[in-house]
Specification:
5-stranded antiparallel β-sheet, 8-stranded antiparallel β-sheet, alpha+beta, Alpha-Beta Plaits, globular, 37% helix, Uridine Diphospho-n-acetylenolpyruvylglucosamine Reductase, domain 2, binds flavin-adenine dinucleotide, 19 strands, Uridine Diphospho-n-acetylenolpyruvylglucosamine Reductase, domain 3
């Protein structure tokens, strides 16, 4: 064991192999629900160093947990409790290697923080559209490994759709240079797509070539009160028809979710809070390539049509960027407000947009019938059919006891409802170690066996993130 630590120190330098002191930042997951124990945290500075670290760990028989910003919500990026796993942190690999304006691409190292990539693109006059509340800490490597979604998927797709090429270190320590900026490349199996979303179980992503877009001339945000979830879906259809590719964000928030923001963040102004005629509010974003005046005109036409059709009972359009940021801030504050309210049970699910109202009616009814007083925090990326359908203990109840007694039951009720509506139990957060059992229940046996075959073929020794996503 000491021999391995010595070798790792020789490869990356002594200060970058951490074994003592407070390793909480690497050993504990973001929600602080799981804490593991690492043999060491290793921070290589180059792809070659990553490859050398992998070879050293394989030779010594130790498995590796790749880690980016450690903001993942499925407990995939922290070590288990054995004290034998090496955490390989990409935090020192942050360079922007190249930006090709004519090809609309940027090549960055995996440890580059998402916000840094957004700012780099902006400085060069482009847009890198991936956007999520953890963007100040999460990394592009982690985004790719989890195929992160976020708030712009309705227009630009998940991280997968934004990636053209990858550089990956394999479980035997080889380097695959697939950093192509090609938009068309049909030369056999798509290895890039195999690695994206593999949550560190097949390879370590060390760099990526990502797509850039022209900066829109204007972005406008509106907040609408809607009389029902059915009307929210109708509003989405109208927005697609009237705004076309201009529709870049469409989020839904239930009144209970908003009431938690009102309660725990009283400094924030929450439009239509407590409006009984509006059980849901919708946040819409319209990006326009012409001008702000043109964007405003089209947005106003959309909202007018939505009022007339009865899809919207009231709405505000942000006057400027500050107001737009304030509205987005309310939406992004829901998870924190929920945490303030107490321990809760999270679900990141997707259902075909057209079936969401029926799913929510069904799941609400089942949960309220089975668990008296349960409180449902429902919000999410309705434009992508992705809900964060979360469950909070009854008012005044002890959150810890609620989780101990009810978590399994709640998860079973919610995931069975998801299955009944042909949805997915993990829309954008991945499987990690949290949902391995659930995946075994809900994924088809054929799909599971194919996934196991891929894992066995690419990582026969089980070096990368063993036991996560699929058990072999
Ligand atoms: C407040 C908050 C809001 C969030 N909102 C969203 C959201 O809207 N949409 C969304 O999709 N997610 C969201 N997330 C989840 C999280 O931010 C994303 O999953 C993000 O992509 C994780 O990136 P990371 O760098 O923190 O990865 P980590 O947490 O470090 O790792 C996540 C997984 O990827 C693997 N991994 C990390 N880096 C690499 C690499 N270089 N090579 C191979 N494997 C690697 C890890 O082993 C682990 O399995 C949110 C999280 C928080 C805390």
């Amino acid at each position: 064991m000491t021999a391995l630590i010595d070798t790792l120190r020789r490869i990356v330098g002594e200060p970058h192999v951490l074994t003592d002191g407070d390793l909480t930042a690497w050993e504990q997951d973001w929600r602080r629900r799981t804490r593991g124990k690492a043999l060491a945290v290793v921070r290589p500075a180059s792809t070659q160093q990553v490859a050398d670290v992998v070879k050293a760990c394989v030779a010594a028989g130790h498995s590796i947990v790749p880690q980016g910003g450690n903001t993942g919500l499925s407990v995939g990026g922290v070590p288990d409790g054995s004290g034998t796993q090496v955490v390989l942190s990409l935090s020192r690999m942050q360079a922007v290697r190249a930006l090709d304006g004519d090809n609309l691409t940027v090549t960055v190292e995996a440890g580059c923080v998402l916000q840094t990539l957004q700012e780099t693109a902006e400085k060069a006059g482009f847009l890198f559209p991936l956007s999520l509340a953890a963007e100040g800490s999460c990394t592009i490597g982690g985004n790719l490994a989890t195929n992160a979604g976020g708030t712009q998927v309705v227009r630009y797709g998940n991280t997968r759709e934004l990636c053209l090429g990858l550089e990956v270190v394999t479980p035997t320590g080889e380097i695959w240079d697939g950093l192509t900026g090609l938009r068309k490349d049909n030369t056999g199996y798509d290895l890039r797509d195999l690695y994206i979303g593999s949550e560190g179980t097949l390879g370590i992503i060390t760099a990526a070539t990502m797509k850039l877009y022209p900066e829109p001339a204007a972005r406008l945000t509106a907040w609408a009160a809607v009389p029902s979830l059915e009307r929210a879906v109708a509003l989405l259809g109208l927005a697609h028809r009237q705004l076309g590719a201009g529709l870049t964000g469409f989020e839904v928030m239930g009144q209970f979710a908003l009431s938690l923001v009102g309660k725990h963040m009283p400094q924030l102004r929450v439009p239509f809070l407590g409006d009984e005629s509006a059980p849901y509010c919708v946040l819409l974003e319209n990006s326009d390539s012409e001008s702000e005046a043109h964007a405003r005109e089209r947005f106003e036409a959309l909202l007018e049509a939505a009022f007339e059709a009865g899809h919207v009972s009231d709405a505000v359009v942000a006057e400027n960027l500050t107001q737009a940021h304030q509205l987005w801030h309310v939406r992004e504050s829901i998870p924190l407000a929920q945490a303030e309210e107490g321990l809760n049970i999270k679900h990141d699910i997707s259902i075909a947009v057209s079936r969401i109202p029926a799913f929510v009616a069904y799941a609400d009814e089942v949960l309220q019938r089975e668990i008296e007083g349960v409180r449902l925090v429902n919000f999410g990326h309705l434009g992508d059919g992705n809900l964060h359908y979360n469950v909070q203990a009854p008012a005044g109840a002890d959150g810890k006891a609620f989780l101990r007694d009810q978590e399994d039951k709640v998860n079973t009720l919610v995931y069975d409802a998801v299955a009944k509506f042909d949805g997915s139990i993990s829309a954008e957060h991945g499987v990690g170690s949290l949902k391995v059992d659930k995946l075994e229940k809900h994924k088809s046996p054929v799909a599971l066996e194919l996934m196991r075959s891929v894992k066995r073929a690419l990582d026969p020794a089980g070096t990368f993130n063993p036991g996560r996503v699929v058990r072999t």
